[in-house]
Amino acid sequence: MAFKIYTRTGDAGQTGLFGGGRVGKDAARVDAYGEVDELNATIGFARAIAAEPQMDAELERIQRDLFAIGSLLATPDLEKMQKHLAKADLHDERVTELEGLMDLADGELAPLRKFILPGGSPKGAALHVSRTVCRRAERRVVGLAREIELPAVVVTYLNRLSDLLFTFARLANHRAGAKDVEW
Asked: Which residues contact 137 (CB under 8 A, 6 or more apart)?
């Protein structure tokens, strides 16, 4: 049986949380997981541009991580949050994996000596947009972490992810023959 995408339960400005409870759609928790959802969508858009199979496979894995982070942020129960973390396999070693991906990419890139302007190839530009959305999501999650208890790895992951997205943007540009434009 198919379900309808609309429920009408949010028409008064409230939304349901994973595990129960309703909050305003402008609540810090909703804002945080909404930013993570937007980040996930921008990464999906970047994946759809100029296929880079190895990079895109990593980006898909990141999208799965972000889906789990969004679920975690939408869960008011700390014990259930831990289950989302376990399902996502999100831990300090995953952050180390992101760092390893950056190190590999950096091996293919010229050293960065100055600030660069976002842009370049379509895929590179899309990844730069993802990077800025990631930074905004990180700011929202940091704000939420001041209000509720969150696993520290969530903020660490988003911080490292923005660095990786910057590096992937440079890599996509390099592979497309688009040079970094220094500021």
From this structure: 32, 35, 36, 38, 39, 158
pLDDT in tens, the chain (183 residues): 677 777 776 676 777 667 777 766 678 898 999 999 999 999 999 999 989 999 999 999 999 999 999 988 988 776 776 776 677 678 899 999 999 999 999 999 999 999 999 999 999 999 999 999 999 999 999 999 999 988 899 999 999 999 999 999 999 999 999 999 999
Rounded CA separation 113/4 (Å): 52
Of 176, 160, 87, the residue nearest 125 (C-alpha): 176
State the pTM of this model.
0.91
Q: Is 26 exposed, middle or buried (0-12, 13-18, 19+ CB in 10 A)?
A: exposed
Secondary structure of residue 22 in the 3-state scheme: strand
- Given a contact cutoff of 8 angstroms between Cβ atoms, the answer to whether 22 and 16 are in contact is yes
Q: Give the contacts of 13 (CB within 8 A, at least 6 positions apart).
A: 24, 25, 26
| CA-based radius of gyration for the chain | 18
